[in-house]
Specification:
Layout: E1 9-14, H1 20-32, E2 35-40, H2 50-62, E3 68-71, E4 84-87, H3 94-101, E5 106-111, H4 116-123, E6 128-132, H5 148-157, E7 162-165, E8 183-186, H6 188-191, H7 196-214
Helix pairs in contact: 1-2, 1-7
Length: about 220
Amino acid sequence: MTKRKIDGGLYLVVDPGLQLDVLLAKIKAAIEGGVSVVQVWNHWNEAQDKQAVVNAICAVAHASNIPVLINDAWELLHTTALDGVHFDALPNDLNEIRQTIQRPFIMGITCGNDLTRIHWANNNGCDYVSFCSMFPSASAGACEIVQQETVLQARAITGLPIFLAGGITANNLSLLAGTGFNGVALISAILHAEDPKKAAAYFTTQLKELHTHEGITH
């Protein structure tokens, strides 16, 4: 199985607790607008069939060769078409996880102002890192506010793609210019938009303009 690649762009985090047909339509529209990665938040209704929901999301995303990751619940890589896992905390036994999954998978980690996680990501085969939260946000939960200087320092430490997350909107995206990031992770700015395709296209265009100005490619 060939591992799909993550190198930047627009990273969409979705809530699987939403009505499935509505969620799938939003994901499809967002991908048409330029989303390049989908992550399934590990947040479920009690009676949900997790495997069926994940596989339905994967079917929509994989039709456009877009990778799908699960937040934390790496066990679902066994029974679904998931491409990888995004950890919010450092996994206790990464070697055991790899031996259990026994196939190539994408791995990302959430980072804050402590740069030791960047070194961990470099040393443990991560495919990307994500900083949370850049701005105050209800969905960011307990994430600390990340200083832009931290992102700059991380850029000097790692060549991995860097995503920024938490409270990012059309109005504050430009404030992140100059930090060396490769992409942004969004939830409400896409999922709660009247037109997810249009919203995704706007962010995709803004990212390209910022990166063209800074000479960043992805």
